[in-house]
Amino acid sequence: MEKRVVFRGWLLPALLIAPQVFISAVFFFYPAGQAIWQSLFIPDPFGLSSQFVGLGNFEYLLGDRFYRASFVTTAVFSILVTLCSMIPALFLAVMADRLIKGSGVYRTMLIWPYAVAPAIAGVLWLFMFNTRVGVVSWYLGNLGYDWNHVLNGGEAMGLVVLASAWGRISYNFLFFFAALQAVPRSVIEAAAIDGAHFWTRFWTIVLPLLSPTTFFLLVVNVVYSFFETFGVIHTITSGGPQQSTTVLVYKVFSDGFVGQDLGSSSAQSVILLFVVGMLTIIQFKFVEKRVHY
Amino acid sequence: MAQERHGMVEKRGAGLWLTHVFMILGVLIIFFPIWLAFVASTVTQPEIVKPPMPLWPGDQMWENYSKALFAGVNVPVTTMLINSLVMAIGIAVGKIVISLLSAFAIVYFRFPGRNMFFWMIFLTLMLPVEVRIVPTYEVVAGFGMLNSYGGLIFPLIASATATFLFRQFFLTIPDELAEAARVDGASPMRFFWDIVVPMSRTNVAALFVILFIYGWNQYLWPLLITTDPEMNTIVMGIKQMFPSGDDVADWPVIMATSILAMIPPVIVVVSMQRLFIRGLVDSEK
């Protein structure tokens, strides 16, 4: 889509885009270019010179047991976060949609966690499950379950998943609720007249009508669990125990800043870049499709 | 109207009560972590380290909060709050201003390189700061911007999401308005200030809410570039309040800080709920 009416001149628009061009060039394109460039080199231990290795860093990474493990960890983590945040959100949205009065109050209450930063969410959940002072871990202990996410990788994963999914419930709830409100009542009533009960109507009519929203949220939540959960993982587990919660973005950080392995860290950035690219394409393809509906 | 909308399929009696029960349960479960943090911020340290801690607020609220605000652990929380506020507002205002200007340029002008510019901003949508942290850190360090507001803000306004949004919106402004402005001999910037900016008010406000929370909740970037506690933001500063090694954390103060860290974004989201939801839907479209 283009404007028919436009203003003349090139100096003014050049000045108008200058701030954005400058900031994007300096803080975006140059660093992104650097990441790609550095991924082709191995710096010597003193950082004085670096040796060109072509795709050597990538070859090494793909053969690296820990890196492959991190891929699996990321996949498990993002699937779990997506499910744990979407299913409760859908359930709550369906409940809220049934109410004539009061859904606004519930919505206001449910919005809260969205505003809580992932890193703060991490601190809150760490506090509840802390092995020494945590309330939940204490009650679990009373029930005979010895909770220790510091030593147990599975429990560590469970905790970061819960803490990451928690804030996302708000987000997913808002989108599901809006989509439910847009479902035409006439369709529902027709089914009701035919004797379809609530859950029958839900599975056969409402859920299929929600599928564009569901698909959109799937993609968005996967992107979220890839990139915005660093704070949760850093505050709760720091990637441990034994790298059981080291997702890809966390590994870029720990190899690049803690391990000072710039070549490998950059190569990981480039791999992530492809992953984000794919996800973005999926997202845009889907949005294109939705426009036609 | 609402009555009519639900009409005959609305459950009455038991079903309705059950729905309320589920909603209340859901809200309680989702609220529990926040409630627990609040309770912890109002009791004494001994009450927490001897589990189970109480589930009802104590009387130490004033002590814990004033200790957090004015003494803190490494740095008073007041300092961190100010840093977060500067960063969040800087990111929101900075991004909105540069995006309004460049979106105006690409929609209302035809200039050489316009297409390239458009693709350039499209590319920036794809790469979150988490992916390019090492080289971006080097750039910021090279400019001597570690431990500065500039270093906190600029790398985070480099993506062009907002430009994209404003472009979409500007395309919906009727052509007649620009035509009339041109006939009247108004300069492009005049048209921008008198017509385009006022018409974008709601979009600007909605975007402000989203960007404020985005900026406030940043963690990784401030963690990397603020080595000086005086420049810590509150969201990343909390982790720094945990002692290293086996020492016991000062839970009441840490929890008071967590509550303080969530108050500004919660106020923004809850008080501007409509704008927030609109911003959310807009920015994901």
Automatic annotation (TrEMBL), chain A:
Could you confirm whether the keyword Heme appears in this record? no
Entry's InterPro entries? MetI-like, MetI-like_sf, UgpAE/MalFG_permease
Gene Ontology CC entries for this record: plasma membrane
Membrane-traversing stretches:
12-30, 71-96, 108-128, 156-180, 201-227, 267-287
Membrane disposition: Multi-pass membrane protein
Sorted UniProt keywords: Cell inner membrane, Cell membrane, Membrane, Transmembrane, Transmembrane helix, Transport
Query: Which CDD domains has this protein been placed in?
Result: TM_PBP2
Superkingdom, according to UniProt?
Bacteria
Give its localization: Cell inner membrane; Cell membrane
**GO BP, one example?**
transmembrane transport
Q: What is its main location?
A: membrane
Q: Where is the ABC transmembrane type-1 domain?
A: 71-283
The family note in this entry says: Belongs to the binding-protein-dependent transport system permease family.
What does the annotation say about its assembly with partners? Answer: The complex is composed of two ATP-binding proteins (UgpC), two transmembrane proteins (UgpA and UgpE) and a solute-binding protein (UgpB).
Its biological function? Part of the ABC transporter complex UgpBAEC involved in sn-glycerol-3-phosphate (G3P) import. Probably responsible for the translocation of the substrate across the membrane.
The protein's name is: sn-glycerol-3-phosphate transport system permease protein UgpA
Organism name: Pelagimonas varians
UniProtKB/TrEMBL annotation, chain B:
Report the locations given in the UniProt record. Answer: Cell inner membrane; Cell membrane
A cellular component annotation (GO) from this entry: plasma membrane
Q: Which GO terms describe its biological process?
A: transmembrane transport
Short name of one Pfam family = BPD_transp_1
Q: Which residues form the ABC transmembrane type-1 domain?
A: 81-272
> Is Transport there in the keyword field?
yes
Q: What's in the keyword line of the UniProt record?
A: Cell inner membrane, Cell membrane, Membrane, Transmembrane, Transmembrane helix, Transport
Q: Where are the transmembrane segments?
A: 21-43, 85-109, 116-137, 149-170, 251-270
Sorted alphabetically, which NCBIfam families does this protein's record hold? PRK10973.1
Q: Which family does it belong to?
A: Belongs to the binding-protein-dependent transport system permease family.
Q: What does this protein do?
A: Part of the ABC transporter complex UgpBAEC involved in sn-glycerol-3-phosphate (G3P) import. Probably responsible for the translocation of the substrate across the membrane.
Q: What is the protein's quaternary organization?
A: The complex is composed of two ATP-binding proteins (UgpC), two transmembrane proteins (UgpA and UgpE) and a solute-binding protein (UgpB).
Q: What is the protein named?
A: sn-glycerol-3-phosphate transport system permease protein UgpE
Recorded source organism is Pelagimonas varians
